[in-house]
Amino acid sequence: MTLLASSATDHRGLTMALFGLFVAATLVITVWAGRQNRSAADFYAGGRGFTGFQNGLAISGDYMSAASFLGIAGTIALAGYDGFLYSIGFLVAWLVALLLIAEPLRNSGRFTMADVLAFRMRQRPVRTAAGVSTIVVSIFYLLAQMVGAGTLVALLLGAEGNAAKRWTIVGVGALMIVYVVIGGMKGTTWVQIVKAVLLIAGAALMTVLVLAKYHFNPSELLGAAASASGKGEAFLQPGQKYGTGTAKLDFISLGIALVLGTAGLPHILVRFYTVPTAKAARKSVLWAIGIIGVFYLMTLALGFGAAALVGSKEIKAANAAGNTAAPQLAEALGGGSGSTGGAILLAVISAVAFATILAVVAGLTLASSASFAHDLYANVIRRGKASEREEVRSAKWAAVGIGAVSIVLSLFADKLNTAALVALAFAVAASANLPTLLYSLFWRRFTTVGAVSSVYAGLVSSVLLVVFSPVVSGAKTSLFPDSDFHWFPLENPGLVSIPIGFLAGWLGTLLSREQPDPAKYAELEVRSLTGLGAH
Amino acid sequence: MDSPPITTTATEVQLIDDSEEFRTLRRSFRSFAFPVTIGFVLWYLLYVLLSCYAPGLMGTRVLGHINVALVLGLLQFVTTFVIAGWYARYADRRIDPPAAAIREAHGAVVHAPREAAE
Questions:
Q1: pLDDT at position B111, please?
Q2: pLDDT along chain A (535 residues), means of 10
Q3: Rounded to 5 degrees, what angle do the CA atoms A70, A71, A76 make?
């Protein structure tokens, strides 16, 4: 706490002012976008009018959460190479989205993931399953971001006690509801674009400042980080964080979930509907891969820079998980604690971090409320008889409801381990959503029973395995450290739950007597590959 | 029903699905996407397994403080960028033209006015 608290008063006002500026600007954009929203396609898909580049930026904005920016930089700063190892899965994952998901989804769906899953199946059971999975994944991810936001604000603003944390969570929640209800997809997309540009500019500035200190010689930076870490060359090698037997398996489990989960994250999938064609969807992913890749390369410089220039003792003193390493590095780069340059740079980077959290939670709220309205309300409850206007109205109410639930859960669950929550969101996406998407698109025989089986089996198995893992009980860092009912040794369920999801879809299909509809599969296939009849 | 059937009738869609043009397009897509996906997933797993179980190899220095682990990690970035670019080129040549031809042949050029917006 020492470093941040001593200069808290210098930068606090400036951080608040910059963040206020971001909120004001994005609210103006939101109101402007909201006035243009007329149809359901405007609300859910931003009128499908974004270009590949714009959507690529927005995807990057949705994806580069505070967990990436602060979490990965902090992990590199404290655990060296293993933080970098962690970041790579997040990038490679985009190839799954590029090669298998983005274009077919854009061509055959309309507003949600369930549009594709239910295309050739019985609507109600498949949409119910997909809607439930979408909302569960989004809420886990939302909780991680909001709890993280509360902790971060308390740390960065040097505010003591729980009041600041609580008010931050409520404020972030209220703002995300406003973005979604007023701006819909168009407003939310612009918020993502603004945030992505700010985040990349902030990270690039810091990267250049770090490298300049080491004559733009990466080896010199690595050497300085290794010696400052007190671990020597081991700091630059795998094993600091994922070194022991179980930790290795845990990391493999996490890595697989990251690579296969990204293309099943509902808030990422709905982004592909905001562009006019499949080719534009492909271009968005290509841009996103470039932007996200460069961003993770920069976090490498930021993490090792923080290790070298701030030092692990100072970082751990502020936050044991290293979440404040990047802001602390900003302060050091600006001239250190107490200097004007340090205060300014710290304020800028802190404001960027808040902007990051705010944009990501808005994207999550939109995706989950869209699925509630379009899948659960319009198709399951109203059996497809709801008008567009009724559907959009229910989406707005759903945003308020989901936002409120997330605020309340975050307030009571502020002890939750945010990294574990993010990992769980990816695990559910990889175990429930991805198998069902792949089977739906590419396996002729796949049936309704198969789709429902893979969604629920993947969802239930990943959640249950975490409930009976050290995340929840049996370890000092558990949610319930005083009780012990864990029997699953890993914190990441993917290694087991992803095969369960795939297996359940396959078995469900083979064991049901249901015959797939060949005409519907032909239609899906033609549509997904050619764009014939696409919305 | 959420997705209105395409302008053509069900039997016509099945005819397209069975046509030589469409089969070629499907083969072009699958023969690229499926093996390449399996390839990069295995390549990523190899990297993760080496990081976990081959500390000696990974710790070998290459140049200054840069070791094999770092080089392999950066190679994951390189292969990701290369595969993305490779697919973009491939799709431009082997997927977009036949897909457009099928769309035009069946009277529904989708979102034509907006293509320019990309």
A1: 42
A2: 49 83 91 90 92 96 85 92 94 97 95 94 94 95 85 70 80 91 93 94 95 95 93 91 87 96 95 96 97 96 95 87 89 87 88 87 92 91 89 93 92 78 94 97 95 97 95 85 91 96 97 89 94 87
A3: 100
CB contact under 8 A, A259 and B1: no
Angle at which helices A278-309 and A52-63 cross, to 10°: 40
- Under 8 Å CB-to-CB from A88, ≥6 apart: which residues? A296, B44, B47, B73, B76, B77
- Interface contact flag, B69 A283, Cβ < 8 Å: no
Subunit contact B10:A233, Cβ cutoff 8 A: no
Q: Which amino acid is at A365?
A: T
Identify all chain B residues contacting A242, using CB atoms and an 8 Å cutoff.
51-52
Q: Which residues contact A527 (CB under 8 A, 6 or more apart)?
A: A107, A108, A533, A534, B6
CA distance A292 to A294: 6
| Chain B residues within 8 A of A236 when measuring between CB atoms | 65, 67, 69-70
Q: Tell me which of A126, A526, A535 to substitute to probe the interface with B (most B C-beta atoms closer than 10 Å).
A: A526
For residue A47 the two structure tokens come to 């009128």
Alpha helix (H) residue ranges in A214-265: 218-229, 245-261
Alpha helices in A413-447 (DSSP H): 418-428, 434-442
Closest CA to A61 of A402, A367, A357: A357
pLDDT digits (tens, 9 = 90+) for B38-85: 999 999 999 999 999 998 899 999 998 999 999 999 999 999 999 999
- ipTM higher than the 0.90 cut: yes
Q: Do A85 and B48 touch (CB under 8 A)?
A: yes
How far is A246 from A279, CA to CA, in rounded Å?
43
Q: CB–CB of B111 and A296 under 8 A? A: no
State the pTM of this model.
Answer: 0.93
